[in-house]
Please model this.
Amino acid sequence: MNKLEQLRAMTTVVADTGDLEAITRLKPTDATTNPSLLLKAAALPEFADEVAALTASQDAVAEKIDRFSVCVGAKINQVIPGVISTEVDARLSFDTEATISKAEKLIGLYEDAGIGSDRVLIKVAATWEGIRAAQKLEQHGIHCNATLIFSFEQACACADAGVFLISPFVGRITDWYIANTNPVIQDPTDDPGVQSVTRIYNHFKAHSYNTVVMGASFRNTGQIEALAGCDRLTISPDLLKHLEADESVLPRRLSDSGDRSPRPATISHSDFLLANNQDPMVSEKLSDGIRRFIADQEKLEALLSS
Model:
């Protein structure tokens, strides 16, 4: 078996793209989108008719964005057996009630398209407000993907809240350490992003949290291979192709030992904020991630309004 096939045997493989052709060929279980990927999808031939129709529509731009997000997600959902992740407007990252309202709107649009909430994950930024929104959504049967995870504290707060899935951003964590420190990475297990996900995974298993850990934002296959065995990994088509072309052995790196310990106390709001503030990587990358998603959301709005 090639490495992609071996990875599928131990980890749920998720495609990090809005490219229908790539998803159809590579056959992931799930798929994820975000404003950046939707902006790229808008330039693909398979969505040209939808973009033209929305551009000509007299609907408000927010309605156009929601409809395009669900259009892309619905088409992807037709070619995967699992779930599609669709992101809430990043400008709502610090507004719990507005995030809930937008999530419910997206789920309603999916239901109008014949896709039940069991086939959709709503992506929210893992700010304190976003996590509170995810907690309430989970209580009402809407599963969430808490994204832009850079800290252990963010992950723990999501697990405390019963969030279905979290997406720690491996590559962006490592990017920061390479730019700001002098890390010695002789092996992928030395990679700061890999170490972050490994710590979270081991903590969740040891304390019986049900929250799914899905590594994201990979820069190379070495990072992916170092997390083989993680619950899920969301991977770009290019890196999926590299794994598919490699026939060498892929050893399992993460596994549940079965050892269990009592759960620690839930993290408080103040401790959450302080921990993230005190780590410059976390505070910088979380803010930067939200800004980047907002910038691409605004570009998509401009495209659909032209």
Summary: The beta strands are 12-16, 30-32, 84-87, 120-125, 144-149, 165-168, 212-215, 232-235. The mean pLDDT is 97. The radius of gyration is 19 Å.
